[in-house]
Amino acid sequence: MAVKKKLNMRKRYEVLTRGMGWDTTYQPMDKVFPYDKFEGIKIKDWSGWEDPFRLTVDSYWKYQAEKEKKLYAIIDSFAQNNGHLNVSDGRYVNALKLFIQGVTPLEYGAHRHYAHLGRHFRGEGTRVACQMQSIDELRHCQTQLHTLSHYNKHFNGMHDPFHMFDRVWYLSVPKSYFEDAMTAGPFEFITSISFSFEYVLTNLLFVPFMSGAAYNGDMATVTFGFSAQSDEARHMTLGLEIIKFMVEQHEDNLPIIQGYIDKHFWRAYRVLALIAMMQDYMLPNSPMSWNEAWQIYYVENMGALFNDLSRYGLRMPKYSDVATAEAEHLSHQTWSDFYNFTHAASFHTWMPDDRKMDWLSEKYPNTFDKHYRPRFEQWREMEKAGERHYFKGLPQLCQTCQIPMFFTEVMSDPMKISRRVSMYKGDRYHTCSDGCKDIFENEPEKFIQAWLPVHQIFQGNCGGADLSDVLKYYHLNEGEDNMEYVGSPDHKRWQEWKGEDKQDETATG
Amino acid sequence: MSLEISSKVIEPIRQTYDQVARHIGEGKPASRYQEATIGLQPTTNFHYRPLWDPEHEVYDESRTAIVMKNWYDFKDPRQFYYGTYTIARAKQQEVAESNYAFVEKRDLLESISHEVRQKVRDYLVPLRHVEWGANMNNCAITDFGYGTAITQVTMFNTIDRLGLAQYISRIGLMVDGNETTSLESAKEAWLNNELWQGLRHAVEDTFVLDDWFEIMVAQNIVMDGLIYPLMFERFIDELSHEGGATFAMLTEFMTDWYAETIRWTNALIKVTASESDANIKLLSEWTIKWSDRLTEALMPIGKAAFAGDGDVAVNEVKQQLLERLSKQGLDL
Questions:
Q1: A505, pLDDT greater than 50
Q2: Which residues in chain A touch residue B40, judged by CB atoms under 8 angstroms apart?
Q3: Considering only alpha carbons, which residue of chain A is nearest residue B39?
Q4: What is the pLDDT of residue B202?
Q5: Whole-angstrom Cα distance, residue B144 to residue A281?
Q6: Is B110 within 8 Å of B103 (Cβ atoms)?
Q7: Where are the domains of chain B?
Q8: In chain A, which residues have their Cβ closer than 8 Å to the Cβ of B32?
Q9: Cys-Cys link to A349, which of A342, A503, B203, B289 (CB 3.0-4.6 A)?
């Protein structure tokens, strides 16, 4: 009997994933892989890529199937037992509305565009890594839809998330960010999504939602979060690996990569304004404030990461200091804005109650009592007097991040609106910050194309001139999906389920 | 007798997401497959043109000449979404794993003749490169295709093809006692042996097709429709007659996979063809173009792999493929 050689795991993995590709000769390689050179990133040796996942397909099927079986068992039992009745308060579900409208479609976009990379990077190992991430992202999109399906049957606002993603004004913030990355070259996309988003900022996205779910009795979403965690860990590893790989390949790559990191840190960070408000205001029980999360996950953890990366010549993203100064204002300013525009949003807003106000004062000692509490107390008084207000006009949007221009000069005068203006080919373009202005001015030809929701409404491309027409175009059911939480159909149903007294109507948040 | 557990009944205010209800009808409960599939892909209000392809939007129907009124008319008969897909494959890999372990434990390949093992090295192991090409092509369709009803299936297919390439590679390792010699000689043959050049040329030409639906036809309908019956059915049968039935066990995953996947490709062609005469014309042209090209490319491999009647085998599988596709509405 012949003696059989044993292959160790590493060698076995290598044999099963490398050497299947070849340099094409009947078609030129540049035609087979047409997109991986135009950015100017130089790759001398694709085989220098180390696979972070090191999973053969059979093991992938096996592990993932186990996770899926467990997750769906919980989802089934959640629906069967009306698990939505166990959440801390009906208000909490608004965080899920924001999630399914603004995050789930991003998972889908990631799925499709990692397939773009999975086909078009020249390196075999890099392609396989992107394919694995692509199918994982499809998983996240689909499991989120299934997890939230039960909520959709009992709450308003989450009934048409993909239609809304393509149209609704505040959803153009995440949509334009992702499409910015998808329409860029493959190296910019992977820096944006795998590094800036999935590595640098991922905890700031997932912790608020998943810990938020845990703190508010949402068993289904917590289970999804745990189930996705091991996938996310793989994706984070990919993010770090790709940055090191690109920088190590050629010294000319460094300034390009640093530029991508600067740009996409700021783009992704601006999207997180929506998360900051969700975390501090929508969660009846908050595991931590936005500012605390920012200090831990960004200032400390990413500070340490970029210390490590400094040996590659990389530095902290530009305008990190502005984002840190903004951390004490971000959620309050964003919530104020949405409170004013909830008549055009597919979720509810409300004013915080005393307990929440005190929590905010404690978490934001430098800013809340000074700048925001008086405003909110006044609005609460107006509500009590039956004068709950909505802003009647349409806001000006930042040409880059597409958020209404409500951010302020946090470095100098936090009560002064921050506005920047750029001229391009005789037209004037407005941006909300130095970060967004730089991005615009580096690629004006790209950013003048932006589908700005307010401009589109004025141009008559969103169903008509009246708010009602626009809401119909959004598929937003007036009086159900939008406006104040107190007195909304969601609120009324919640009170019926919980047997709460109608007197409760003034006790908010 | 069943237990009656009383629980609070709460009437839902809707049955499913609107994008699903619009497709299946209001007020109907939706399946998990439907909720995971219908209406997920963005369709409008794209912000920026791709720097790498300014002629198209991020998602663009005009990336194929096939025209559909509704890209969610396609249904996967297997109803695969991520969960059902991975669970199905996990079961299959368990069977495959136990087959491979059994063959190794009993040293079943030792008793097979040198000639049969050499045939496996020469004609089966190089197919790992064909699977790798299929992986790239399915990934391309996932990238450029339109509508989740198609692109999620090609995503699963992308990963399947990598898995299939890995199973073939394992067979290559097993015939050589875990040495990589047959993998290396198969690659050498794939790159330089005259026998394989027609096929490699055709595969490389599919990499540069502009129309993703033509890639679909060339790869998933025609190439697979010729190679799987020829190599994983007929060739393996022939090896079995020559004492190599163990290889039938090691390729069970492939034959099961093909039998299952063909249900989807048949449904895909049927729905696309029934949409319009223009679609029938395109699909038929592509089918004829690629089946002629690939039959010719496979002819030398068939002649060498089958004792004496290789050309008959190649022509028969082509005939069967064309007959099957005619039944789905193509004009061949």
A1: no
A2: 105, 108, 141, 162
A3: A162
A4: 98
A5: 40
A6: no
A7: 112-327
A8: 146
A9: A342
The DSSP symbol for A417 reads E
B101 close to A (CB below 8 A): no
pLDDT of residue A1: 44
Structure tokens that stand for B283 in this block: 């699909």
Asked if B32 reaches chain A (Cβ–Cβ under 8 Å), the answer is yes
Q: What is the ipTM of this complex?
A: 0.97
Chain B residue with minimum CA distance to A178 = B47
A204-213, A484-493, B302-311: which has the minimum mean pLDDT?
A: A204-213
Domain boundaries, chain A: 39-496
Question: pLDDT tens digits for B263-289?
Answer: 999 999 999 999 999 999 999 999 999
- Closest chain A C-alpha to B31 CA, distance in angstroms: 10
Residue that is written with structure tokens 């395109």 in the block: B282
Using CA atoms, how far apart are residues B172 and B164, in angstroms rounded to an integer? Answer: 12
**What is the rounded distance in angstroms from the CA atom of residue A401 to the CA atom of residue A410?**
18
Task: Kindly report the nearest CA distance between residue B329 and chain A, in angstroms.
Answer: 30
Q: Between chains, do B166 and A17 touch, taking CB under 8 Å as contact? A: yes
Q: What is the mean pLDDT of chain A?
A: 94
Mutation target for A interface from B11, B18, B146: give the one with most A CBs within 10 A. Answer: B18
Residue linked to tokens 């605390």? A292
Tell me the β-bridge partners of A413: A409
Per-residue pLDDT band for B224 (boundaries 50, 70, 90) equals: very high
CATH, domain range B112-327: 1.10.620.20
DSSP string, A152-201: HHHSSS-S-HHHHHTT-GGGHHHHHHHHHHHTS-HHHHHIIIIIIIIIIS
Asked which of A137-151, A218-232, A274-288 is least confident by mean pLDDT, the reply is A218-232
Q: Is B201 in contact with A2 (Cβ distance < 8 A)?
A: no
B117-147 b/e (C-beta count within 10 Å ≥ 16 → b): bebbbbbbbbbbbbbbbbbbbbbbbbbbbbb
**CB–CB contacts below 8 A, A to B:** 245
Q: Which residue of A146, A160, A182 is in closest CB contact with B58?
A: A182
State the pLDDT at residue A412. Answer: 95
Residues of A in contact with B39 (CB under 8 A): 162-163
Q: What is the CATH number of domain A39-496?
A: 1.10.620.20
Contacts of B86 in chain A (CB under 8 A): 61, 64-65, 68
Burial B162-189 (b: 16+ CB within 10 A, else e): bbbbbbbbbbbbbbbebebebbebbbeb
Contact A58 B166 (CB under 8 A): yes
Q: Is B199 in contact with A25 (CB distance < 8 Å)?
A: no
Give the model confidence (pLDDT) of B74-96 as tens digits: 999 999 999 999 999 999 999 99
- Distance of CA A28 to CAs A33, B143, B164, B190, Å? 9, 21, 26, 17
Question: Which residues in B lie closer than 8 A to residue A111 (C-beta atoms)?
Answer: 155
Nearest-Cα distance to chain A for B36, in Å, is 5
